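In pairs, describe these two lines:
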Amino acid sequence: MSAGANVQLYILGSSLYGAQVAAALGLPFAFASHFAPQMLDEALHIYRSHFRPSAILDKPYAMAAFNIIAGETDAEAEFLASSLMQSFVALRTGNPRQMPPPVEGYVASLPPQFTSALNDILSASAIGSADTVKTGAKAFLARTQVDEIIVACSVFDHEKRKRSLDITASVFAELSKRVASA
């Protein structure tokens, strides 16, 4: 069934090495900044500055993953995001598990070192209402200048996840109209 398929190759990385490989091979590069944002800017710089044109690409083509958890209000989205936050804390403390349900006031219950770690790991995220998500997405695009955003939406409740993605789709539809008319 795959004979003759022309499958596009991408390098997905969460370190500087992936950026180096993608640049050397002249392939599109996607960075997993939704869980490893610390090296995002440096990885994009390495990829773009060391890119060698290939039969596949004549110039760099970069993507970055971005957490988006959208709700009707900022407070609702922050509540929904507590599931993702719990997962990150569990992983970082050596206790990985399935995504837990959201918890009201989760961040306030954490010691300062965990709050700081969450702020760092969620630096490639927009959590909030449509307006908050739009502001965050625009800032992320301005910062990274990526060609595509890969949206990650880790919401425990299936219906709330679908609603978050609906809000996200509306935000990006509006942003793309602005870009097209510019």
About this structure: Helices lie at 16-25, 40-50, 74-92, 112-121, 130-144, 158-181. Residues 158-181 form the longest helix (24 residues). The mean pLDDT is 94. The chain has six helices and five strands.
